[in-house]
Design brief:
2 copies of one chain form a homodimer.
Chain A (H helix, E strand, L loop, with lengths): L3 H22 L11 H17 L3 E5 L6 E6 L5 E7 L19 E5 L2 E5 L7 H18 L5 E7 L9 H7 L1 H4 L3 E4 L11 E6 L1 E10 L5 E2 H4 L6 H10 L22 H9 L4 H6 L14 H6 L3 E10 L8 E2 L2 E10 L5 H14 L6 E10 L2 E2 L5 H13 L5 E5 L4 H10 L3 E4 L14 E3 H19 L1
Parallel strand pairs in A: 3-6, 3-7, 7-17, 8-16
Antiparallel strand pairs in A: 1-2, 2-6, 4-5, 5-18, 8-15, 8-17, 9-13, 9-14, 10-12, 11-13
Amino acid sequence: MSLDPVLTRIDADLPHALDRLMALMRIPSISTDPAHARDCTAAAEWLAEDLRSIGFEARPHQTPGRPMVLGNGGESGPHLLFYGHYDVQPVDPLELWHRDPFDPAIEETPRGRVIRGRGASDDKGQLMTFVEACRAWKAVHGTLPARLTMFFEGEEESGSPSLVPFLQENTEALRADLALICDTGLFDAETPGIVTMLRGLVGEEITVTGPSKDLHSGMYGGPAMNPIRVLARILAALHDSDGRVTVPGFYEGVADLPEAVARQWQDLGFDAQAFLGEVGLSEPAGEAGSTALEMIWSRPTCEINGIHGGYTGAGFKTVLPSQASAKVSFRLVGEQDPLRIRDSFRAMVRGMLPPDCEVAFEEHGASAAAQMAIDAPAFERARAALSAEWPKPAAFIGSGGSIPVAGHFKRILGMDSMLIGFAHDDDAIHSPNEKYDVESFHKGIRSWARILAALSS
Amino acid sequence: MSLDPVLTRIDADLPHALDRLMALMRIPSISTDPAHARDCTAAAEWLAEDLRSIGFEARPHQTPGRPMVLGNGGESGPHLLFYGHYDVQPVDPLELWHRDPFDPAIEETPRGRVIRGRGASDDKGQLMTFVEACRAWKAVHGTLPARLTMFFEGEEESGSPSLVPFLQENTEALRADLALICDTGLFDAETPGIVTMLRGLVGEEITVTGPSKDLHSGMYGGPAMNPIRVLARILAALHDSDGRVTVPGFYEGVADLPEAVARQWQDLGFDAQAFLGEVGLSEPAGEAGSTALEMIWSRPTCEINGIHGGYTGAGFKTVLPSQASAKVSFRLVGEQDPLRIRDSFRAMVRGMLPPDCEVAFEEHGASAAAQMAIDAPAFERARAALSAEWPKPAAFIGSGGSIPVAGHFKRILGMDSMLIGFAHDDDAIHSPNEKYDVESFHKGIRSWARILAALSS
């Protein structure tokens, strides 16, 4: 089946494809906030309906959390599973958005047209690139280019609590020859990437309790333990002066970057100055002795993602609070064991508690890093297909973000994943004013059409 | 003019006095929150009206912030100024209150009847003890026992920004022979106290900024500076391992406790175990080598009163925030200079900033510690009067809280202050479920009647 008419069809249908994406973006499917549970269900139903309109058998599947969407289509060719997620990040701080995050629009910017709104890039826009490629293929050829299983998750932004049980219970429905995942970025505006290294993630929330109730710092300041002070001491101790993480055993399983990979990365000409300059920074702040690209792709980290305690409103309140809490996450690489790191972190925190303090832990996911088997022929075919669409040849790259689903596919379904995405570093995912370049969306759809042709030929 | 009928009148009128206090407590006069500005005005008007009803010439006086209430009454005798504040602390966390903080009620508890609600103890209940003593005196004798100036502030819980200018502009109206201040506590349930040492207070809010916007910790975690981590490091460095404050020059002006005072305090038989046990603690957590009473009364402290940064809602968000902030306060003693300490703190914080980080400071008040001239005859007369009312003799004590107004009275008006109050340590001021014992209120009113008799005889 020929590719060219499909690409022509994609070009002609772009305005309608953008309309469909914005319809999906209008549904505020924030998975981490229970108040938006119904919106997640609405987004899942929208997607199932859209898949049915292009010939898939598709429906939402209930889970203890947000529903999964499964769809099957196509009669012959290799069996490919496509994964994306329809849930989005919270939108706070809302006052920093210059438009309603759930009233998306196409905006003209100095760098070209963008789709503005929550989920534009992470991950509704990316997910729809694949759906639109299928739609065009079906419209031109009356059939899909391969046996396709669509799998859309609704809990990716909240630690995917239902994912592993769902994979375990639906092994037969989900096992394919290869998984395609669209939740990553371009290497740069001209260079697409296939991600072959993914960092893992351990998320922990710690709550330190001192006094049994909030106290007046005049009456108790001095003799009473202050849990914010205890928490600050713990958090400050998580890195040494070289920026290395101090959790005992943390670096077990972290290998040095192979010489060949390091060289390939060097050839990419990553501009750390520009990358940091975009967000008002000038110096890589991570481990001494690592390049910025290594800090993102191949080195593990510990970050404090949130902290709260005491009075934080307007003015001043001389309270000595009963509790203080922080959300801490670790990005993992290589063979680091997420559960051992969680245990070691908790033991370290407990060991730093002074008398009269208690700590409670809440877990928010734990996944190991993943390394793809790039010698499989599909990887070279996909690289060639991508290279035909974009100005520069596609590169095998790393990813700082964590896409645990790839590891789960491998472990539970025995299936390799190919991670291809079209996001830009400045898409402001997880931040106010998220956007997705119209070019990312358009060339993303075309890229998938090319890859589908390459993999099914 | 005889005292006994006044005491009898106070006993008989207690139910009505409680009703009046609860009427005042129903006005949510939170000064730190601009949304409650109108409630502060309403409380000031309520008080002026109440003072007029017992023969004072009284009205609210506008300031750039919340109004001050001034009232004058009485024809002869010494000129006494009475100070209290009608504004109250915020009520969060609201969910920990077992009743609406601004719908007060008398509750039966295992330790006796209490008035429950925000401001019961700090400071509406205390303020009204003096007003009710005057009311009884006026009812019985047709006149007031001395020349009295009533002075009620509405910004005590928000750093008193208008206080100093108001004192400077109203010197003549406010200068009296002696100030009486009711905003402190009993030493214990049986022992009243006259506070002769007050800690000062410096309040600072610091905001650390790293990246110019919130970032995804997957994409930027590693090379990007995390302002929460920087803030934690700064806060953790404010104390050394002995619990001493590390701000350079902090202990300049802190004298050792005089032997005689230390002995007197020892004689008080303060039960640190019980004091801390009330709030779920077991060990004094302050400076090594100090007793718990010294930690509260005669040693300076540094506390973190609030901290905030990143994502603090339900679930998890792998954000690397642009900003993190904390509210920090210092309690001062002896001759410590609040402005030098502020400068030294700011210099220390600036010196700890890594590259690409900025810090902004917001000041929330600065006042020195105060030491009363207890050899003035009024102090011994008041001590005797208090001792006649309570089971045990009154003691000269310290106070951990900061009541800067006493220092301002001395400096601006050349007037000494006598600080007498009837609060209990377990009144939960600044906390949920604040209360004031009905006994504190009742015996407080009687105490003031006795003190007024003693000072005007």
